[in-house]
Amino acid sequence: MTATSPRIDLDKVAALIREVAAVEILPRFRNLKEGDTRQKSPGDFVTIADESAELALTPGLIALLPGSVVVGEEATAKDPAVMNALAGDAPVWVVDPIDGTGNFAGGNEGFVSMLALIQADDVLASWIYHPITGEMTIAEKGGGVVIDGRRVASFQPAIDPRGVLAYGSRGVPGIASLVDKRRDRLKQVKSSRAAGIDYVRMAKGEIDFTFFSGIMPWDHAPGAMIIRELGGHIAYIRGDETYRPSQALSAAGILSATSHATWRDVHDKLFGE
Question: 17, 153, 162, 217: which could form a disulfide with 221 (CB 3.0–4.6 Å)?
Answer without folding.
Answer: 217
